[in-house]
Amino acid sequence: VAEVPADPETGAFTCAATTGEGHVSLWSVVPGKQSRCLAYAVEEKNELMTCAMPPGCDDTVLTGGSDGTLRLYKAAEGKLEVVQTVTQGIDRHGQPTLGPPAKTMAAQFVDRNSVLVGGWEASVLLYDLRSKTVARTFDGPRLSGDALDYRDGCVLTASHRPKEQLQVFDFASGKQMTPSTTIDTLPFACRLFGRASKLGAWVAGTSVNGVYVMNLLTGEPMASVVDIPEAVYAVDVCPTDPSKATVGCARGATYHIAVEL
């Protein structure tokens, strides 16, 4: 699920959602009222794994999935129409190359024309949608979920591996800012909070079925909640209070979590 920030007066917002069966939809959500589907499309024979919406654009959604192709949609008359596709991967030397890439697992817009994309390729790519080129690479991450975030000039990735999962990159240079951090979980999702001088992250994963709140400058955990009954696959942080988050788990379970920071 991806969304455009809510209207401060009404709380209404627009969001996009994808499914493993290739369905992508755009929704209007008003608190206290029934949600309404604005537009819809199906990508045949493609397992969709992620979607993202450009900032300030409530009629546009980008999708990525098992075929490695990014598709940019615009809503029109109840349908989502493809207006652009990008297919580009990484070769065995770590260089951008045309051709089928590995499965796309995460996407995050930086601005209306630039989007970070990650998956099983051991690199996160910054695509320029205007030129259809790779503007920058962030080497090392191998993502298996929504384990990519951008904030205040920093890019965070949480790789699905047993050690050195967390990497923080400088967006402008593509270079890693701090040593990789090892945590006791196999991450599926992460979210940044704070600013570059005091940067933290919530990281959700399996193996211990929990969430960790990390100080990314020191690599030390600030808090953790483990042994959640279900595997944890998603996390979203309260925009006004980083000590609170909601996690999404297997079997459709969700939990609201608060920690002391």
UniProtKB/TrEMBL annotation:
Q: Which SUPFAM superfamilies match?
A: WD40 repeat-like
The highest taxon in the source lineage is: Eukaryota
Under the heading PANTHER family, the entry gives: CARBOHYDRATE BINDING DOMAIN CONTAINING PROTEIN, F-BOX AND WD-40 DOMAIN PROTEIN 7
- What's the protein name? Guanine nucleotide-binding protein subunit beta-like protein
Q: Which organism is it from?
A: Neobodo designis
